[in-house]
UniProtKB/TrEMBL annotation:
Pfam families: PP28. Residues 24-45, 102-132 have a biased composition (Basic and acidic residues). This is Casein kinase substrate phosphoprotein PP28 domain-containing protein. InterPro entries: Casein_kinase_sb_PP28, HAP28. It comes from the Eukaryota. Residues 78-157 form the Casein kinase substrate phosphoprotein PP28 domain. Residues 1-18 have a biased composition (Basic residues). Residues 1-132, 146-165 are annotated as: Disordered. Residues 46-62 have a biased composition (Acidic residues).
Amino acid sequence: MSKRGGRGKVSHKGRRRHFTDEEDLKHDLEKAKREQEWRQAREIGSDDEGSGSDDSSSDEEGASQKRKGVSGLIEIENPNRVQHKSKKADNIEVESAPTQLSRREREELAKQQEKRRYQKLHAEGKTEQGKADLARLAIIRRQREEAARKREEEKKAKEQAKAKK
């Protein structure tokens, strides 16, 4: 018997996951690009060969898109018919008009703006907490100035004592 025990399907839990490397992705993209260029070159070559036999019919076909199935046989001129054109993600234009924000997003923006405004007022000392912080800073500055003055006086006193000896 096997170590896994029992028969049946093997669970994939606990197995290592496989992630694609950047190099592999780049290689695949380059390969797809080369294949697309080759197909385009092949289509251009086949169009050139077919145009020599009948110029008038090939010009008409070249002007219209290639149609699949019955739609190539039947011309429809219905103004109410909607033709869906597929758009690629690269070709879609992003609307420049601002989108409507949800209530949560508006509240979040208002909250951020209020926080910035409060921080500005706090730094200027216009809030109660800001006034208290500025008072504390002023006290600390005075203490540091006094400590620096005392150190200078002590240095001068030591120098005078050395000079007297």
